[in-house]
Amino acid sequence: xxxxxxxxxxxxxxxxxxxxxGEGANALLLALNVFVLLTAYYLxxxxxxxxxLAGGGAEIKSYAAAGQGILLLGAVPLYAWLAGRLPRRxxxxxxxxxxxxxxxxxxxxxxxxxxxxxxxxxxxxIFNLMVIAQFWSFANDLYNPEEGKRLxxxxxxxxxxxxxxxxxxxxxxxxxxxxxxxxxxxxxxxxLSLLLTNMVDRRxxxxxxxxxVEPLGEGGAFRLVLGSRxxxxxxxxxxxxxxxxxxxxxxxxxxxxxxxxQAVAAGTAGGLSEKEYIGKFYANFFMVVNLAGLLLQLxxxxxxxxYLGVRLALLLLPLVALGGYxxxxxxxxxxxxxxxxxxxxxxxxxxxxxxxxxxxxxxxxQEKYKAKQAIDTFFVRAGDVLSAGLVYAxxxxxxxxxxxxxxxxxxxxxVWLLLAxxxxxxxxxxxxxxx
Length: 435
What we know:
By secondary structure, the protein is an all-alpha fold. Helix content is about 85%, strand content about 0%. The chain has 14 helices and no strands. The chain has helices at about 10-15, 25-55, 60-85, 90-110, 115-140, 145-175, 180-210, 220-225, 230-265, 275-300, 300-330, 335-360, 365-395, 400-435. The two termini are about 15 Å apart. The mean pLDDT is about 90.
């Protein structure tokens, strides 16, 4: 590809990343693919909330992460079994069409007023992790480490844009279509994403002159993770990262609720109720986080990866988390927790997401598909479970205040930083070897 003259598309994308001749089309198709997937997910989220609150109540959310983790213990080996027997294109088609069919089934059950709130909530948590992990496995399969480091910022921009636009589109469609019809729209988007995948797959197979990319053969997902120091370090990093992030979300929610109660009691809430005050805060918070993440992805991520490399870029988010929770431990007020979480989430959704996908570039195809599914699903959910355990213990046994939880996150962020340092060294060695 490097010897091809750059097309107008290639030259345009060079505004945002280092794109060489002939690379722009596939990178843009992949960005559009993940954009469609994230849009579908954000159309599903309002339906999830409607069903869970009506059918199971808010309390069930505290147990959902544990339930999803248990289900993933069965789903991940099943995915690995399929990956060992189906060629790449058929594997992605089978998984995508299965989830699209599930959306159709849930739509019919919802219209029949069946009590599916809890089941659907658990399903959405697994769907979001597995489908996105599968997309990034496919993207990793297309590029070598040098290409991925240059082009993944463009691909990941599609995810950031899909998260922003998907939320907006969901608001527009609920009125004219209704809540449950969003499931059918999301199902259609999944089919569209499959068409885009097939288009990229066909272009890739033509380029390398093969009829089909072969199945991956035998080998369990968890066995691959536990048998590789590099993969195990990545799994532990994802566990700790999600533990810190989820506990941080709890701290933000706790602080916002307290501030809302105080504002209403003092008459400084501008006539808003506590729920309205909280809702207004989160609407603004999500808008700022998503916009900041989008701008970072578009203008900063490719440059940071180019000049810092994966090894140093991997350290930025844990350093930000260390600074934020150190400050929050001594000043546990809303302004501090808000901007600490804004910085953490915006970097997580942009730079950190791109870097963690790039970590799988110097791995085998088995590791890209099978081990990545285990890491991006089970180990992520395990972090949620540990966070829930920390919150429960802190509230019921240890009488933790906000500052104490911040100190706990500070200690976890230090562990996270040490893991990032170890992974950076391993990644550098693997990349040098594969190069």
